[in-house]
Amino acid sequence: MTPVAARSALLDGLLTEIREVAAGAPVVVAFSGGLDSSTVAALARDALGGDRVLLVTVNMGQYAYRRGNRIVLEMADQLGLPQRCLLGQGMQHVVQRGGPACNRCTRTIKLGMVKAASRGRLVLTGSNRSDTWGQMGVKVANGFYAPLLDLDKPQIRGLADELGLRIPRIGEHPGREGCKLKHLLKPLVSPTYHGRAVAEANEVLLEVLSSHGVRADLANVKIIGPLSRNVALVNVRPHPPAEVREAIRAALVRLPVLDEVRFVDGPQRLVVMAGPALAGDAAGRGWVARGRLAVDFAHPIEVEWRPSQNPRLRTFQVVDAVPAGTPT
Length: 328
Description:
By secondary structure, the protein is α/β, with parallel strands linked by helices.
């Protein structure tokens, strides 16, 4: 069987499965405008008809990329499907106050708000083998259905191509785009200080790269340091030319919420404080290092874990970063 035939068989099977699971009833798609949710939306449209599919997006306010907001509208138009927007920024301030908590945010804010807005309709998600939900979840449960659960990114890209989808990129990551707040690697205690730092720095970085015609594979500004100090770690891959690098630095140092700007030019050792639960969970620490931190850095990282004495730290906080091999 040729790869094209294999993708066609996969597509036909998914369309049939969606019709069976939905049983002809209207559905809601948790929609971000990215590869996964757009593919699910197109599948639902072709399986059920556009009049039975509603796209619902949870917008995170200042933590949503401006380009991402435009992509949501572009993709809804490309799909020919109605779209509704909910605002989740305020809830993020609560969820992230105890430290980075992407999975909790997905569960309680993104999926929770979409489920509440669905009014009993089945909610389709883009969970797949590339994320934690895809690795640990089940296809149909509690009013949610993940048609792509057993698939990896190459398979999903193949489906998107076959469905004729043209999905723009924000430019922050080759596969995990959408929320600037995931680059805040410490508790969101002050939205006007910590929150503004990660929101404004990441927007500025993409604006400078775009203005210089630089197309990066990965581009983000991580905000680390103690709570009283915002240290910006700039990750761009491949490394930009010297004049672009200086333009990035000049733009970032003008932000009053940043106290220091550093470029990630090589392998790093991160000094990370672990909350009580994470400090006693070796598997959890391993996942944070490999699945949460390493994937967004322009160079390899190693993690130096330290137990935190802060009882309010629920997850973790990156307090410093030094070149790998630097004496402790």
